């Protein structure tokens, strides 16, 4: 009887796939619960954003609470502009804390009020700062004017890299600022807490964010790292946060920095080398519009990651240091809305979520292939206060309503234990995507699996670089073997047009820009991670079950088995 019910359950699951996919071959993906590939590090539990003052605003606090709740481990958060001069007014691509000013005699005046407000918001939720040391206070900048910019998504304002992007006129004063900040943090949060943070210098110093030379950045790093270590010898400090390691100019900057860390003369101490506890760089994809359709380019992002790993691996003394991909995204500008940048039209719907699932899985593969220690990959996406609904920013939520992409991270948060071996006639591996991205007739239908003594979780995605609407569904069977239990509970979570998708729910409402309270409640509910079907108890045969899955294009499923 139990065997009959199991077969009936599988048949019913498969029914929706039959009409639209009668001519398609069913793809079989295998997962072996007995074959683990080492711990599934929570490299996804890292987030960041440009605008630090959004942190303690209404929707900012709400989203941070949700991000913290989705993870079993502390989430790390990285924000810009923690030392920028200003009154703390939030704006796109801008933030300030007024941490450093000078009196009439040129003496330092420190104010930690706004930084504390930001970090308190993280700590209260069990999160950890990646404390970004930057940018340059107005009173220390060698070229302070103009200082404040007023950037807008149409990019008509022009250059945003103003006085805050320049080197200090006094390196020792900057070092003392850093020293006082670290000491203040220890006094406020305790030594053990601050030891668990990461400290880093600047952001993307190989492009406009740094208006000095490579050597001037290295000099500032030496003074900064020395100040951090003097204040707290056990603090973790790193850099250089270059972007695009696959570009020749970025690779040169990266290598010059690492050469100095290993064997250069330290500007601050006169000794050989510099402290380095974590290595950071950025990696971005490159979407474009082709014949009116958004076409992603995952290969560009993965090539950046692979080149960064290759560079780190070439330094024997540094190869095992933790690596944080400080920004790891489908493209470069979170605050560039869809209205002025049509290639960003992927951000509201399921293309962003499927891209995220597929790309994160390949980051594990790339790190393993290069033999490096990937600790985290920061998703540079948060929320933008007081902006239109679903405006096509690279964000995780809009006006307090979660987007589909956030549900991928909820899925990651449900996975635990060791990575499990995935096999079968999958259409792509990381090498193929590095070579040519996901183009042509084949879709990237693949899986990431994890398991421990009492569970197996399998994330399956159906991704393609071309955002074809409607995207074709694909029949998939997931065979899980090596199960030690005689009875398992299956929960099947799904992100697609009808599940875990507030964007589609909003469009069905008529795309209101001023939804009422009832509509907002409906959207908030639609934005949560949802089950495809009711949980069901299954009986493995010889430790094996097969779960059919009709997976829509750009859809993501999470199969969670517990016993």
UniProtKB/TrEMBL annotation:
Keyword Lipid biosynthesis: no
Residue ranges that the Swiss-Prot or TrEMBL entry lists as coiled coil: none
Source organism, top-level taxon: Bacteria
MF-aspect GO terms: hydrolase activity, hydrolyzing O-glycosyl compounds
Leader sequence residues: 1-22
Entries under Pfam families matching the protein: Glyco_hydro_39
Keyword check for Protein transport: no
Keywords attached to this entry: Glycosidase, Hydrolase, Signal
Biological process, per Gene Ontology: carbohydrate metabolic process
Active-site annotation: 204 (proton donor)
InterPro entries reported for this sequence: GH (IPR017853), GH39_cat (IPR049166), Glyco_hydro_39 (IPR000514), Glycosyl_Hydrolase_39 (IPR051923)
All copies of domain Glycosyl hydrolases family 39 N-terminal catalytic, residue ranges: 28-526
Family statement drawn from the similarity comment of this UniProt entry: Belongs to the glycosyl hydrolase 39 family.
Listed name of the protein: Xylan 1,4-beta-xylosidase
Organism: Chitinophaga ginsengisegetis
Organism lineage: Bacteria, Pseudomonadati, Bacteroidota, Chitinophagia, Chitinophagales
């Amino acid at each position: 009887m139990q065997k009959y019910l199991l077969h009936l359950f599988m048949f019913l699951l498969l029914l929706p796939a039959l009409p639209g996919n009668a001519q398609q071959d069913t793809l079989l993906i295998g997962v072996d619960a007995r074959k683990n590939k080492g711990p599934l590090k929570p490299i996804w539990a890292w987030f960041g954003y440009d605008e630090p003052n959004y942190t303690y605003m209404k929707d900012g606090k709400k989203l941070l609470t949700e991000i913290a709740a989705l993870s079993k481990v502390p989430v790390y958060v990285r924000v810009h502009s923690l030392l920028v001069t200003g009154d703390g007014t939030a704006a796109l691509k801008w933030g300030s804390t007024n941490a450093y000013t000078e009196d009439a005699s040129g003496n330092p005046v420190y104010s930690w009020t706004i930084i504390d407000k930001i970090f308190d918001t993280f700590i209260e939720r069990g999160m950890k700062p990646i404390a970004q040391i930057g940018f340059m206070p107005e009173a220390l900048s060698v070229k302070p004017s103009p200082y404040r910019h007023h950037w807008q998504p149409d990019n008509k304002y022009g250059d945003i890299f103003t006085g805050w992007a320049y080197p200090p006129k006094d390196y020792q004063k900057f070092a003392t600022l850093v020293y006082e900040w670290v000491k203040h943090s220890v006094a406020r949060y305790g030594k053990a807490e601050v030891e668990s943070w990461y400290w880093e210098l600047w952001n993307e110093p190989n492009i406009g964010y740094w208006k000095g030379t490579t050597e001037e950045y290295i000099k500032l790093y030496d003074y900064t790292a020395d100040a951090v270590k003097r204040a707290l010898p056990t603090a973790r400090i790193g850099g250089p946060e270059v972007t695009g390691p696959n570009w020749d100019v970025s690779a040169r900057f990266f290598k010059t920095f690492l050469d100095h860390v290993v064997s250069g003369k330290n500007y601050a101490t006169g000794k050989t080398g510099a402290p380095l506890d974590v290595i950071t760089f950025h990696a971005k994809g490159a979407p474009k519009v082709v014949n009116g359709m958004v076409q992603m380019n995952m290969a560009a992002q993965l090539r950046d990651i692979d080149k960064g790993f290759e560079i780190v691996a070439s330094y024997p003394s540094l190869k095992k240091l933790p690596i944080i991909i400080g920004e790891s995204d489908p493209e470069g500008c979170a605050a560039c809305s869809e209205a002025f940048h049509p290639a960003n039209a992927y951000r509201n719907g399921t293309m962003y979520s499927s891209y995220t699932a597929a790309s994160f899985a390949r980051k594990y593969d790339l790190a393993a292939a290069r033999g490096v220690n990937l600790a985290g990959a920061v998703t540079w996406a948060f929320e933008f206060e007081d902006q239109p609904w679903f405006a096509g920013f690279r964000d995780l939520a809009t006006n307090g309503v979660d987007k589909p992409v956030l549900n991928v991270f909820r899925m990651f948060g449900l996975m635990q234990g060791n990575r499990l071996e995935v096999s079968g006639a999958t259409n792509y591996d990381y090498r193929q995507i590095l070579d040519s991205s996901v183009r042509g007739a084949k879709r990237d239908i693949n899986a990431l699996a994890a398991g421990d003594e009492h569970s197996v979780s399998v994330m399956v995605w159906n991704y393609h670089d071309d955002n074809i609407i409607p995207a074709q569904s694909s029949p998939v069977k997931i065979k899980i073997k090596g199960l030690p239990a005689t009875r398992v509970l299956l929960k099947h979570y799904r992100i697609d047009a009808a599940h875990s998708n507030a964007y589609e729910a909003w469009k069905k409402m008529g795309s209101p820009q001023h939804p009422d309270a009832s509509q907002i409640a409906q959207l908030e509910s639609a934005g949560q991670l949802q089950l495809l079907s009711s949980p069901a108890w299954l009986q493995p045969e010889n430790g094996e079950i097969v779960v059919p899955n009709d997976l829509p294009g750009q859809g993501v499923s999470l199969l969670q088995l517990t016993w």
